């Protein structure tokens, strides 16, 4: 049996933002005095594949660190979750972390994957359904950073799962608002969140400026996506990836920088770029455990257990949702 054979066994709910949302956000962002494009648009099919390669790079510590923590802490997490839980994952990834968690839990009843990247979402949900036929699998295409989604409950307790330090891609205000929506979606349940910790600047900057150039290709794919989907005319060789750590705000900031004076069309509109002009495409906040716990409390959660890996690189948090 193949992944294609089990696609029909995956329940699918479609709340995918319209192409107009992508177009409108890009046009608005490029028209702003400080040019920016929301990082959620990095993850089309090509971007998701590039990010999977980033996760395997020697400089990129978060993925391997979190995987090792989930492997080691599985029994403890299972005891907190209880039997027959429904796992709701915000963001799909390549499914490795989902499988680690589901394999650790006591007879999980169902798994719900929410992601904006439709192709990756369906592929990974079908692959998980093939590997774990005893679990009901649901795939929800939507923007979990903006939408409060109504999900069917299959299981005794709903457990949210937000790994990968993706919480750091949101501003503190947006992250708190997102967590508040999660608390409403998980009444009486819990949430497991992965959070990157502040550390040596050289380690942080190397993780986002890898020597193989995969992260640069990931960033530039955003312009390639605009060319593919919005009739863009960006010359990718005219821009370069740049990432640095902003100590004052404890975040990595990522930009595409124009290498020369140039212009590009998007959806019939032209934009002029000066040499050195920047397009902001992503932030990655690094949060101390106490800082994240305060954020979770402000969103309505009760933080309980926090785990930190032996090297002090990464933390996992268990949050209780209100009834």
Automatic annotation (TrEMBL):
Choose any GO biological process term that the UniProt entry carries and state it.
methylation
Top-rank lineage group of the source organism: Bacteria
Q: Which keywords does this chain's UniProt record carry?
A: Methyltransferase, Transferase
Is-annotated flag, keyword Methyltransferase?
Answer: yes
Indicate the segments forming the Histidine-specific methyltransferase SAM-dependent domain, all copies. 22-319
Q: Which GO terms describe its molecular function?
A: methyltransferase activity
**Which protein are we looking at?**
L-histidine N(Alpha)-methyltransferase
This protein's gene is called egtD
């Amino acid at each position: 049996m193949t992944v294609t054979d089990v696609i029909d066994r995956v329940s699918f709910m479609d709340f995918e933002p319209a192409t107009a949302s992508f177009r409108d956000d890009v046009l608005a962002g490029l028209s702003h005095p400080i040019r920016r494009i929301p990082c959620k648009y990095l993850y089309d099919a090509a971007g998701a594949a590039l990010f999977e390669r980033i996760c395997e790079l020697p400089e990129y510590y978060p993925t391997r660190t979190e995987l090792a923590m989930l492997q080691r802490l599985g029994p403890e997490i299972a005891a907190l979750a209880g039997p027959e839980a429904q796992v709701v994952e915000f963001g799909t990834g390549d499914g490795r972390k989902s499988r680690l968690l589901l394999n650790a839990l006591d007879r999980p009843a169902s798994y719900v994957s929410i992601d904006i990247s439709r192709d990756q979402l369906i592929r990974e949900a079908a692959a998980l359904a093939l590997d774990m036929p005893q679990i009901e699998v649901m795939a929800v295409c939507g923007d979990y950073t903006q939408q409060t989604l109504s999900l069917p409950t299959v299981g005794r307790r709903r457990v949210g799962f937000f790994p990968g330090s993706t919480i750091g891609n949101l501003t503190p205000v947006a992250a708190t608002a997102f967590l508040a929506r999660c608390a409403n979606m998980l009444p009486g349940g819990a949430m497991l969140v992965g959070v990157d910790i502040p550390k040596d600047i050289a380690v942080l900057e190397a993780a986002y400026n890898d020597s193989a150039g995969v992260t640069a290709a990931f960033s530039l794919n955003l312009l390639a996506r605009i060319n593919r989907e919005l009739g863009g005319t960006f010359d990718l060789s005219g821009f370069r990836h740049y990432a640095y750590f902003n100590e004052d705000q404890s975040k990595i900031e990522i930009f595409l920088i124009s290498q020369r004076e140039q212009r590009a069309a998007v959806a019939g509109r032209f934009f002029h770029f000066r040499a050195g002009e920047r397009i902001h495409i992503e932030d990655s906040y690094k949060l101390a455990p106490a800082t994240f716990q305060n954020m979770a409390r402000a969103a309505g959660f009760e933080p309980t257990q926090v785990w930190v890996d032996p090297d002090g690189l990464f933390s996992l948090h268990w949050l209780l949702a209100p009834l």
